[in-house]
Amino acid sequence: MPGAIGPAVVGDAERERRAGQHGREWPQEGPPATGAAVEVVTGTQAVAHRLTRLRLGAVEEVCALVRNRPWVDTGDARGVRHRTVVDRRVRPAPVDRAGAHLVRIAERVPAELFLADRRDGLLVLAAPDAEPAALAVGPGELLDSLVLLFEAMWREARPLWPSVGPDATDLAVLSLLLSGLTDASVAKQLGLGLRTVQRRVKRLMELAGVTTRLQLGWTAAERGWTATAPGPAGTACDPALPRTR
């Protein structure tokens, strides 16, 4: 799990992973969920356990803001995507799964936050001289605000491992998409397979650190990719990308 909360979480995550490999479920410890939108969790073990439950419950993506503590990657064999923003003072460890685990660095991370599929959150409360505590947040306005906070931090952060950037083919695909062509039309014009074009678009989105094509269009314009993209003669690049089909 990216963004471990101290050694206890790392140990819990490792035990959970080994348990999963042997077909066992994580033990149900602590009081049952109350169904409330916000629940206070106190104590190192309780916070660590809730974080592990959040990670296990994720189906598509785990997002994390990490600050003031070592960041580690405990892996995820289930193919769940991870996006993590770490404070620049944190020393992240390299990971092997660059395609599934994206890491960015921010000048300052305002809070420690963990999100699972945008439906569950864990906000760690800053209390250096008190017992560790966190807010377990369910669907509602507070969770929506926390998701917006993460996405804002993600957009402003820089990639942990500098990328070589989009290549000439990436830029050609981008230019044709910005001119209004569909993925299928781009594939035909460039002599590429449809899946190749879709993989190129996914690569561009990862390089830009965005999750939608609309965001990709605006970010590409901000970074100057549209200025260098070899677009069709006489066309203007609108930063809103079209549908895939």
Please explain how this structure is put together.
The protein has 245 residues and is of the alpha+beta class. It is 39% helix and 17% strand. It contains 8 helices and 8 strands, in the order αβαββββββαβααααα. The chain has an 8-stranded mixed beta sheet with strand order 1-7-6-5-2-3-4-8, with helices on both faces. Helix 5 (183-190) packs across helix 6 (194-208). It is elongated and about 60 Å long. Residues 1-35, 94-98 and 231-240 have low confidence and may be disordered.
Write the layout of secondary structure elements.
Elements: H1 6-21, E1 38-42, H2 44-57, E2 61-66, E3 81-87, E4 101-106, E5 112-116, E6 120-125, E7 133-137, H3 141-156, E8 158-159, H4 168-178, H5 183-190, H6 194-208, H7 213-223, H8 225-228
Parallel strand pairs: 2-3, 3-4
Antiparallel strand pairs: 1-7, 2-5, 4-8, 5-6, 6-7
Helix pairs in contact: 1-2, 4-5, 4-6, 5-6, 6-7
